[in-house]
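dumping this here before i forget
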Amino acid sequence: MTNIQHGIEVIKGYVKIAPLNPGVYRMLDKSGKVLYVGKAKSIKKRIVAYTRFDKLPDHIKRMVSEVDKMEFIIVENEAQALLMENDLIKKLEPKYNILLKDDKTFPHLMINLQEDFPALRKSRGIRRDKCKYFGPFASATAVNNVVDIIQKTFKLRSCRDSVFANRDRPCMLYQIKRCSAPCVGKISRDEYHKTVDEVVAFLEGRNSELKEKWSLQMQEASANTDYETALILRDRIRTLSSIQGGYNVEYADIMSADAVAVAKHKNMVCIQVFFIRSGQNCGNIPYFPKQASDMSEIDILEGFLSTFYAEHIPPKEIYVSKQLENNEFLQEAIGAKINYYKKGNKAKLIERAYENAVAAIERRLAENATVRANLSEMQKYFALPRVPQRIEVYDNSHNQGSYAVGAMIVATPEGFDKKSYRTFNIKYTDNTNDDFAMMKEVLLRRFERMSAENRPDVILLDGGLGQLHAVHEALSEYDLSGITIIAISKGPERNAGKEFYHILGRESFDLPFQSPIAFYMQNIRDEAHRFAIGTHRKKRAKSMFKSVVDEIDGIGAKRKRDLLNFFGSAEQIKAASLSDLQKVAGISKKTAEKIYKYFHN
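structure:
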């Protein structure tokens, strides 16, 4: 029996016992490795399609030929199937699934409607159900522009709750007419909430409704000789009209939608996502999925939508560049309408997204060609056994021995692999002013956890001959075959481009001044330096906000914040009586006793 026949017979056997429920199925090979993870409204009906061999695309035929076992997980609905599929794909990285490197968190605007005086917030990451979110915005600039408009037009507060609760007079934003100063009672709760409702309407794109409402209110205010209110409303209408006048005509009738287009060009795949909110283009992002070059554009789109919207809030509608086969299932799972348009403004928007996807591929190909050329030059100048596929660059950072950290960045033929970056808090080196000792510790800890899959071709050290000898001494008991260790030091004039390179058993040398390979080596060294400095600064900044309260068992970030807001400082907390500690919201009698005993035992 051929592998194809065996795979089909295996799947046919599982069809008999597969559930009709929605869920996730996994296909495994003889070794038990997961080949593919899929979702379905009915598992049984979905996997039957894999037995119709003649209708399968080539990459699925190859997968079926490797199948030796299947596993099923039943869930309650399509949305849970989508989330579970996404989690399993990320965890298992199956050979025949589209792998999307999606570590981006997009900025959103957030309003907590349950607060007495809700503030306008920028948000990334975790979503809380009681808050209302608007976005996403592709960049911080896009979200800042919207915040600026809202502050000018609606005067919603943007201050932190702790600042809001402790003000006894209006801040500068009130003076420049960017805030209505609810903190000191310049506006009532009911009036403020009416403004919040208008902000929500604006962010949802109901601008015509707002203009009509304000026009009627302006006429009424004028009739009642309330000219100050009439002028405010007139300015709001002008602001809204100027915003609408700046809309792209192509997007004017689109309130909340994402346009998703896939392009295959020169054996590379790119998916471009445009975010349209309230008739405005809030930016676009390109994605380059792995393991997608052999798949059809429809399969790529469906795989992308499943992964992307399992992690991000969907809009009301999604426009796609191809008619999907599993459109109904994806709509139910994602919670948004998915439509394919052949004409009109929405079709033009998809065409624009497709053109951007092709352009992004061209740029990526050009960048990759440049990197590959530099790696070939690197092989030649440094006498490497092969073109390097993984380069690890190390640097240390500290402030006169304080907050010492080591950093590792990874460069590959595809560019910087930021997912593989690592930081090392210096633990075992007594003298953190000793750069050699710190580098020894970092490399030893790295080699202790090294595997065949993440073994580097080149290790680049930011330092001179001393660093090179120190690292070779530290790693003397490890197998360094196939790994070239290079140290880079500044030349006598300490000018960029005139660095010296050091390799054990070879005379130190420099690279041709202002050559592409010299720029490349500087670039990867500077990236390690940037990453090390950034990590060091974060560690130092974090320590500035530590206090003695952090040492008390059971006192987390929220209780610490409540205590500091109530008392003002750690010293005041220390001096507080037991009864005073119990007055703090969220501090129980038991917790108050624990805090009191900590300071007075």
